[in-house]
Amino acid sequence: MTTFCSPVRMTMQQRQLTHMACSLLLDYPNTEFVETIAVTESQLPELPLPIATELTKFCTHVRDNGIRWLAEHYVTTFDQRRRCSLYLSYYSVGDTRQRGAAILAFQDAIHDLGFELARKELPDHVCVVLEASALADAAAHKVAVEMLAAHRDGLEVLRTALTGLESPYAHVITALCMSLPQIDAETIAYYHDLIHQGPPAELVGIGTPLPFPTTVS
């Protein structure tokens, strides 16, 4: 039986700090990632204990195994498994013709929050939305949290898959889910559909660049 993360009480500032930490830790681990770990660890005392504990477990795992191992694990996990996509819209539209519209909707939403996309990732990448949430003013932050909560089913599928793989990234997604509102019955139902069926897989045509995993489940 799946156990969903219960929300952790926190201030807006703590939630923004959590979202910035998750955004940084879910980014591809380049040569500067050691510094990212150090900066994250320095901020952990400011976070609620359950969230700090999850992020500490991730940071400890990285220090024990090294950045090179993490980079290889990142690719094999997020680029090659359909249930481990970091693109939020993937869980609702998958590799279908609706992909373009979904990406455009995220782009418009990020713009409405007052941000322009400066990073290479597509606007539905979880790191993009998390960064917007972390940097937004109070009103825009609330909207960003609602965007993340609207894709909670996909985040829970991701968390379940990462946990099954014993991936350290499960700790980061768990911390993220703890920062979101209580999951509702409709979202739980859709989560179970995704677990059993996987994301939609109607291919949009040979030669179309897919920003989502297209290999194993």
Automatic annotation (TrEMBL):
The lineage of its organism: Bacteria, Bacillati, Actinomycetota, Actinomycetes, Mycobacteriales. Gene3D superfamilies: TorD-like. InterPro entries: DMSO/NO3_reduct_chaperone (IPR020945), NO3_reductase_chaperone_NarJ (IPR003765), TorD-like_sf (IPR036411). This is Nitrate reductase molybdenum cofactor assembly chaperone. The gene is narJ. Signal peptide: none annotated. One of its GO terms (molecular function) is metallochaperone activity. Keywords: Nitrate assimilation. The keyword Membrane does not apply. One of its GO terms (biological process) is chaperone-mediated protein complex assembly. It comes from Corynebacterium canis.
